[in-house]
Amino acid sequence: MHVFVTGGTGTIGSPVVTELLGNGHTVLALARSDSSAQALEAVGATVLRGGLADLDVLRSGAAQSDGVISLAFGRDYGTAESLAAGIAEEGAAMAALGEELVDSDRPIVAVSGTPWVPGHTATEDDPLPTEGPVGGRAASVTALLALASRGVRSAAVRMPRTVHDQGAGGFAGLLTAQARRTGVSGYPGDGAQRWPAVHARDAAVLFRLALESAPAGTAWHAVADEGDTVRDIAAVIGRRLGLPVRELPVAEFGPFGPIFAMDQPASSARTREVLGWTPTHPSLLADLENVRP
Asked: Hey, where are the domains in the chain?
């Protein structure tokens, strides 16, 4: 396939582009900066210049392609307001891409998050909650999946709270960054809450599999580790940085605080069985051993 990819230089996007190119696909990738364009061209992708807010550029990229992988998200999400703005921008982009594919039977794979389901481990059958700080993102993905009824082979790959590579990325990466700033490797609540995780290169394989074969209107879980406790994650970070480890108030974690405090394990059993996805890269706790003081 000739695949249009947005967000192709991010933690997930870079390995996705490499995975596609390494498996016989060609890639047209959105780039908003010279540095992104150079990085994409260096690995063999063709570049389409523009940003996530350039809806006509997005439509053009989708029109030129046999399928789309939508990964881009704004870089500013340090406040509740900037997070909401980023979610709105992503939703508009996703809607534009999906509409361009109506009645074509072409695939589009969007990135989403594993749901928080009180009392049990989330599965692919659980709906995404449309309330809360990231509820708008769930609404956008749900609308994209509904395009299955209009001739779009839409699918969502739900990512866990930490997508990591060499000890960096995701919620664990945010904990590491905060520990460096504050001198404390902290966690909200009692730290017993669990976060699922996946290595970025394992996630990339699942995006390719979903693009190639996922049925229309389906959601899949890119979960390698069902749930490490946040206390264990903070303990490895603290040890690697030589910092004390302790509980901190939820408010210390900014707009992500309420999400950080949730117990949110997730399973990928159906994804592995149906799509044949098998993670092979290091677990989160093993990968955090790459964090350098």
From this structure: 2-161+198-224, 163-196+226-290
The answer, as to whether pTM is greater than 0.85, is yes
Highest CATH level, class, for 163-196+226-290: alpha beta
Fold topology of 2-161+198-224: Rossmann fold (3.40.50)
Q: What is the full per-residue pLDDT of the chain (293 aa) written as tens digits?
A: 999 999 999 999 999 999 999 999 999 999 999 999 999 999 999 999 999 999 999 999 999 999 999 998 866 555 667 778 878 899 999 999 999 999 999 999 999 999 988 889 999 999 987 776 677 788 999 999 999 999 999 999 999 989 999 999 999 999 999 999 999 999 999 999 999 999 999 999 999 999 999 999 999 999 999 999 999 999 999 999 999 999 999 999 988 888 899 999 999 999 999 999 999 999 999 999 999 99
What is the SS3 string spanning the chain? Answer: CEEEEECCCCCCHHHHHHHHHCCCCEEEEEECCHHHHHHHHHHCCEEEECCCCCHHHHHHHHHCCCEEEECCCCCCCCCHHHHHHHHHHHHHHHHHHHHHCCCCCCEEEEEEECCCCCCCCECCCCCCCCCCCCHHHHHHHHHHHHHHHHCCEEEEEEECCEEEECCECHHHHHHHHHHHHHCCEEEECCCCCEEEEEEHHHHHHHHHHHHHHCCCCEEEECCCEEEEEHHHHHHHHHHHHCCCEEEECHHHHHHHHHHHCCCCCECCHHHHHHHCCCCCCCCHHHHHHHCCC
